[in-house]
Design goal:
Layout (H helix, E strand, L loop, with lengths): L2 H30 L1 H19 L4 E6 L5 E6 L4 E6 L17 E7 L4 E8 L3 E8 L2 H8 L2 H12 L5 H18 L1
Antiparallel strand pairs: 1-2, 1-6, 3-4, 4-5, 5-6
Length: 178
């Protein structure tokens, strides 16, 4: 083979190796900072939660037809970021109450919670368990970050180049998860 072609091929292999090393180094940095990124995204989405968030049921009674009455709602609006496929068995505030549904939510105050719904056939109530960014990522994965990204994009709360960078970062995190 021609020496120039061989040199070019060797250089190409070196460039590929260097690029892979840079990607691995960058990936480690991104994964190290995922909780910081989540925290910043939650802070950025607060205006959306205040405007379009929902009031979630705190407690209600249920009649024989399944209709709710005497409803009481949480004072802060929230948006759902994720739902567990398998809720915990019992609530931390009352181990006698079985959890039927469990969601990760962000409040209009920029806080994360797990909303745990329980019912005994007559009373439906929830427990809002504070959730750290680290725990949220462990329990719900990067999907919650995609929900926040969607809110930011939908309500144009960030510059286009920031959204593009965030989209790339989240795509990379999702690829590393799989």
């Amino acid at each position: 083979m021609d020496p120039i072609v061989e040199q070019g091929f060797d250089r190409l292999l070196d460039i590929i190796k260097e690029t892979k090393e840079k990607q691995e180094h960058t990936a480690a940095k991104i994964i190290e900072g995922d909780t910081v990124l989540l925290t910043e995204m939650i802070a950025a989405v607060v205006p959306v939660v205040k405007n379009v968030g929902s009031e979630f049921l705190q407690r209600a009674k249920q009649d024989t037809k399944g209709e709710l009455y005497d409803q009481k709602y949480y004072p802060d609006k929230m948006i759902i970021l994720g739902k567990t496929e398998q809720p915990v068995n019992f609530r931390p505030d009352d181990p006698k109450k079985k959890v039927t549904q469990q969601f990760c939510v962000a409040s209009e105050k920029g806080e994360l919670f797990e909303l745990m719904f329980s019912t005994d056939g007559f009373v439906v109530d929830t427990y809002a368990s504070p959730l750290s960014a680290e725990d949220a990522l462990v329990f719900y994965g990067y999907d919650i970050m995609y929900m926040l990204y969607s809110a930011l994009r939908e309500y144009a709360l960030a510059e286009e180049d920031v959204l593009d960078a965030l989209n790339l970062t989240l795509g990379y995190l999702q690829q590393k998860k799989n």
